[in-house]
């Protein structure tokens, strides 16, 4: 008996003008006009997060059709990576070109959810550009990697407003990808891919030959 083919759904892809029009193409700083470049992107069912070259994070809420802006205090530097997470609270982690990492705990209108915007900073372990971020599914762990091969683990206690960070791994080449699940951190660098077991603090390399 021949199987019935599933119906084909056609989708049209077009620029998100409603999103792009809410982000300025230039800003004025003193007597200078500075071009705004979009440098990082992440999406989920609720938000679209866009990082920029002026250190501003643009966060578009899909449910409310609203754009909100968040920035780092002090020096305006390029955002190099953003990572969203929807768990009990909505979280977004942001990394910059100088190695700053911040977590924003977003405000929610739902009952029992967070009612005040809070920010957590990963204290000065990274000194160079952030190239990868990875959340644990419950939002209690954040891993960050940089272009010098450092990987930092940050333990977040959202109820107490505490973020404790420590260096857990250092590779000889730039981190290009991180992913975390079930106490195992997948790490890809320019030279190799490995599994880091966070409980045992052990490393298992994937494959035997270094990348060319």
From TrEMBL:
GO CC terms of this entry: cytoplasm
Coiled-coil ranges from the UniProt annotation: none
GO biological process terms on file: protein exit from endoplasmic reticulum
Pfam families the UniProt entry points to: WD40
Protein name per the record: TCPR2 protein
Protein's organism: Cephalopterus ornatus
